[in-house]
Amino acid sequence: MTRMTWTPPPPFEPRDDRPADGAAAPATPAGTSTGTPAGTSAGTSTGTAVAGTTPTTPPSPSPQRGPRSWLTAARGRTLAGFTLAAVLLLVVAPAVLPDFRLNLLAKFLCLAMVAVGIGLAWGRGGMLTLGQGVYFGLGAYLMAMHLKLTDAGPGGVPDFMLLYGDGTVPGWWEPLRSPVVTLLAIVVVPVALAVVLGLAVFTRRVRGAYFAILSQALAAAFAILLVGQQKVTGGTNGLNGFRSFFGYDLADPVNKRMLYLIAAVTLLVMVAVVRLLMVSRFGELLVAVRDGENRVRFLGYDPARVKVVAYAVAAAFAGVGGALFVPIVGIVSPADVGVVPSIGFLVGVAIGGRATLLGPVLGSVAVAWAQTSLSESFPSAWTYAQGALFILVIAFLPGGLASLGGLQAAVRRRRAPDGTTGDGASGSAGPATADAAGRPGGLTAAADAADHVAPVPPTHSVEPAGRLP
Amino acid sequence: MDALYSQLFAGLSVGSVLLLAALGLALTFGQMGVINMAHGEFMMAGAYTAYVVQGAIADAGVSLLVSLPVGFLVGGLLGLLLEVTLISRMYTRPLDTLLVTWGVALVLQQLARDVFGAPNVDVRAPSWLSGAVDVLGLAVPKARLFIIGVAVVSVVALALVLKLTPLGRRIRATVTNRDLAETSGISTRATDRLTFFVGSGLAGVAGVVLTLLGSIGPTLGRNYIVDAFLVVVAGGIGQLRGAVIAAFALGLLQAGIEYTTTASIAKVLVFVVIVAFLQARPQGLVQVRTRSLA
């Protein structure tokens, strides 16, 4: 990696588009120096790129900074939605649903955890990740291995290894006998892989379709590896037949209910984390990177770091979701982690609204529920339904169901006398203008609207080479 | 020495299959930025075309030769239908086309399962393609040689079309600079449609020759689509040269690693190699130079 180091006042070189590294640490929420390059680059050959953000007139009423009361309308709505979700999940569902249905719901919540991460990486960050099954699978297999080892007892050998292998536990399994190591590994291993892959890919500006294809290839390779190494992974059958979960008997319905509550609380925490991330400076940067990566770079940030952080958070969520999936469902196999399930995660996110807070959760739970009930009675109908959902939602309703509400809001705004704020969020069908000149005020308007509306990600900003943007 | 030759040949053989699968993808991805996940299902359609044609024409040799152009037509028409109905609405959102075409792929797979049944079916290979010939002291299956031949013919034909015909000129102009092509009086919409037809047709041809390698099923395409996309990514877009080199490089690499380890580890290592390769050339092997920001 050849990188320029930051040399102080930049005599602007028109054809040098390298990021000014070290000028800013995007992940820190506190104010870092940002505006320097904007003033110097105006009027050069790339001047159009920053035309929308010329610093002479700062965007006037910034919604978060004004001297308003703490409980703004957006905050109130989010808080109300969050509280409603918490009450439904923690009080109503356990009281109403029988054990079997509650366990099913717990499984859906695990899938929703992956969806929350995808909402962050894809909906807010514009990274179409087709390989979340890998991180889900890493978390799931790590947990499954730990459960297998504890079931086998101290020094024991898991049953399937006696069946397929030579009856010895491989060395890299041994640390997973410890519950602490396992719990750490469930988060650390997916994050580590995501950071390594993210750094390798994003710093070289491999993005858009290239990134999507690479993430898909990762999922394919991971599933093939799991199948191929039957002696240590259980092969196609996967790992199953767990008896206890950290000392609690998995056959006991009370413990199953406990698992449901753990999953529900975990999911709520994740949603809260995403919300906090999105209202922070990092969240604004992430949306800005999605809408105009080059502009963010011109402002002195390193978009790669922003993307890596979001991608790693998504990986961590998927890993935790996978880890909880295992005791709840009782089996994990390569069929849960390959290319097909990895892309399957996306449909719920797309339906709920990829750039909304609760949309991915509601969408993925609804899709999983539909899948379960449809494929019980009409196995082949579900495949058609899933295909049709992909086609209809992505092609005709890219903002998801949440954008139906957003459309109303946009109409209201347009009718309002001062209708200038809605541009960035409602311009979904805008022409494929150049990346930079496209959406005036997109940086602030998109972040502003990110709380409740689903601004359709303008994916035309990720042009493949060979076409001028 | 024999082992080396046989690995080399295995690599060439894998590479030619990959090339056939990736050729059409490179074309459509390069021109329109559209990622067609249903490409694998067009291959599957081509394979089932060969199966249906063989049902009509008993002689295996004749039916294979008839299947090749018919498979091209079937794949091409499916592609044209997809382009006109869905993809043409989504040119401003290339990433979303990936998911829409994935939906199409799911539907086509299930359709094949409902029409032809879930179990795999077999297409008889003609007698003149069974057995092996002796090349440099190595017994080489004739079917594999035939596939390499079809791949070579396809590449040469496509290169000639791109280089010499008016259509090819229009395609190259559109790939290089869409706006300029449009202002020069080229109907880029019509060009897009034709490109999609040709690219999908090549998938159909690939499907037909794949029937020589084994039995075919509804998920035939899914097994090839990921690798085919990797070829396109590694090869770079906009020119055939990259796809050709990348396909054979990946084929040889896969065969070589499989020879020393196992097939599953080979997949992972190939992935690592590609990510490492993209560190050096993020746009792939062959890049069309523009002055736009990368």
TrEMBL record, chain A:
Annotated Low complexity bias: 21-55, 428-454
Location relative to the cell: Cell membrane
Keyword Membrane part of the UniProt annotation: yes
Record's keyword terms, sorted: Cell membrane, Membrane, Transmembrane, Transmembrane helix
GO MF, one example: branched-chain amino acid transmembrane transporter activity
InterPro entries: ABC_transp_permease (IPR001851), ABC_transptr_urea_perm_UrtC (IPR017778), LivM-like (IPR043428)
Region (Disordered): 1-69, 415-469
Main location per the UniProt record: membrane
GO cellular component, one term: plasma membrane
Mode of membrane association: Multi-pass membrane protein
Membrane-spanning segments: 78-98, 104-122, 180-202, 208-227, 258-278, 308-332, 344-370, 382-407
Protein name in UniProt: Urea ABC transporter permease subunit UrtC
UniProtKB/TrEMBL annotation, chain B:
InterPro entries given in the database record: ABC_transp_permease, ABC_UrtB_bac, BCAA_transport_permease
Bilayer topology: Multi-pass membrane protein
Principal place of residence: membrane
GO biological process: amino acid transport
Cited Pfam families: BPD_transp_2
One GO term describing the cellular component: plasma membrane
Domain of life from the UniProt record: Bacteria
Compartments where found: Cell membrane
Keywords on record: Amino-acid transport, Cell membrane, Membrane, Transmembrane, Transmembrane helix, Transport
GO MF term set: transmembrane transporter activity
Transmembrane segments: 6-30, 64-82, 143-162, 194-216, 228-253, 265-282
NCBIfam families: urea_trans_UrtB (TIGR03409)
Family: Belongs to the binding-protein-dependent transport system permease family. LivHM subfamily.
Protein name from the UniProt record: Branched-chain amino acid ABC transporter permease
The organism of origin for this protein: Cellulomonas aerilata
